[in-house]
# Entry
Amino acid sequence: MLEDLKKKLNDEAEQLLHELNVTLPAEIEKAVAQGDLRENSEYSAALDRQQFVQARLGYISRRMSELSELDLETIPDDRVGFGSRVRVLDLSDEVEEVFTLAFGDFIDFENSEISMASPIGKALLGSFEGEEVSVTTPGGQLRYRIVEVTTIHELADEDGDSSD
# Structure
């Protein structure tokens, strides 16, 4: 999971760097060639996009730094933590759901990844199998029983690679 996240960030950074160093300069040069820049929407759009790309690259750089400081040894191996896959039972309708706790805002709803900073992520973090947790969401109160916890360490063992 950790390596996948690093790869995703590196891939995005490469695309953004190409856009910043190749695509946007060409667009700006083309807009400049059209003359008056004060009312040139292509020029303004390219400059706005350039600022966005630079800000996003800064954000990715900070995230990569945070990830490099993440020590898997500090992640608990007996309760819910970063990278844990958690099977819960919704106590209101008896429906089971599975969540994987992801880092920050790097979530993938198709793979049931939720942020550790989300209301559900915060409620699950540090919990044990069998424990009941209460979650306050904008839609109301949720109650879950944790049915199964598979930690990042166990998931790495399943993959046959303990470096993830």
Summary: The longest strand covers residues 140-150. The helical segments are 2-33, 41-69, 119-124, 152-159.
